[in-house]
Amino acid sequence: MLSTKPKAVGKTIYECVLVVMTAVYLFPFYIMVTQSLKSPQESMYNPLGLPQALQTDNFTKVWKLMRFGEAFSNSFWLTLVSVVGIALVSGICSFAIARRASKGYVILYYIFVCGLLIPFYMTLSPLIKLMKDLQLINSLMGLALAYIGRGIPFAVFLYVGFIRAIPKEIMESAVIDGCSPNRLYWSIVFPMVRNITSTLIILNALWVWNDFLFPLLTLQNVAQRTIPLAQYMFYGQYNTEWNLAFASYLLSILPLVLIYFFMQRQIIEGISTGGVKS
């Protein structure tokens, strides 16, 4: 009996810590939901309390002011093109680097790795200048190309490690059977690195979807605003409409929440197994 008491006490303490941590993580969501349903005056003078009257018309106002449908479409296509481009270009490039041990390919690999060492803000000004010279400013496709270029180094670094871990005998047998390099990659190698591919898709999708600075510097046209840019309109130098700002946050995360609920098994598998080589 005495030996079980410390275990029970330890389990109770552990559960209490988990409850406190859960409450800490959920508190920002509570603030977001309650603030989005308040009037401007109530959101200012009673930020932590429950709304006295539900202001559901905040969402209607936000939808119209943000032009939410247009902003969502821009964010969706920008994220889709960027993520698919990073996966395709990085995967094919990594396959060529991993298969060949020549000095040129080794140097190319280290050039990609050096891209991880350079801080993004150091390359920001030259990149904006380059995009301006190439007339890619105010272009969602130009922004997608910039994201692809920025995301390739990390993706190549991961892909090369995973492809090199694939037994050479598998690829050599496929080549002996007459498999072309193109078919070798898509039929054999690509399915074997699907775990790291799903991980990269998740990480890059969250990065592109939530990015604010890069679209702010490259998209001045209102019709091309992404969701983070559209949300910025609720902040001013002298006044901030917190109830509308939080309503916009809630609308913005709903697509990601729905995607997670429908694809949570694939997302969890991709993140949990992405760090384990096939």
Q: Short summary of the structure?
A:
The chain is about 80% helix and about 0% strand. With about 280 residues, it is an all-alpha fold. The protein folds into two domains: about 55 residues, no CATH class; about 170 residues, MetI-like fold (Orthogonal Bundle), CATH 1.10.3720.10.
Break the fold down into its secondary structure elements and pairings.
Blueprint: H1 4-36, H2 40-45, H3 57-66, H4 68-99, H5 103-117, H6 120-133, H7 140-164, H8 168-176, H9 181-192, H10 194-210, H11 213-218, H12 227-231, H13 242-273
Helix pairs in contact: 1-13, 3-4, 3-13, 4-5, 4-7, 4-10, 5-7, 7-10, 8-9, 10-13
InterPro entries: MetI-like (IPR000515), MetI-like_sf (IPR035906)
Subcellular location: Cell membrane
Organism: Paenibacillus thalictri
CATH topology of the largest domain: MetI-like fold
User: CA-to-CA gap between the ends?
Assistant: 47 Å
Number of domains: 2
Instruction: Summarize model confidence as the mean pLDDT.
Output: 84
Number of strands: 0
Return the CATH architecture of the largest domain. Orthogonal Bundle
What would your notes on this structure say?
The chain is built from 13 helices and no strands. Helix 1 (4-36) crosses helix 13, helix 4 (68-99) runs antiparallel to helix 5 (103-117) and helix 4 packs parallel to helix 7. It has helices at 4-36, 40-45, 57-66, 68-99, 103-117, 120-133, 140-164, 168-176, 181-192, 194-210, 213-218, 227-231, 242-273. The two termini are 47 Å apart. The protein is globular, with a radius of gyration of 24 Å. The protein is mainly α. Mean pLDDT is 84; it is low at 274-278. It is a multi-pass membrane protein. The chain crosses the membrane at residues 12-33, 76-98, 105-124, 144-163, 184-209, 242-263. Its main location: membrane.
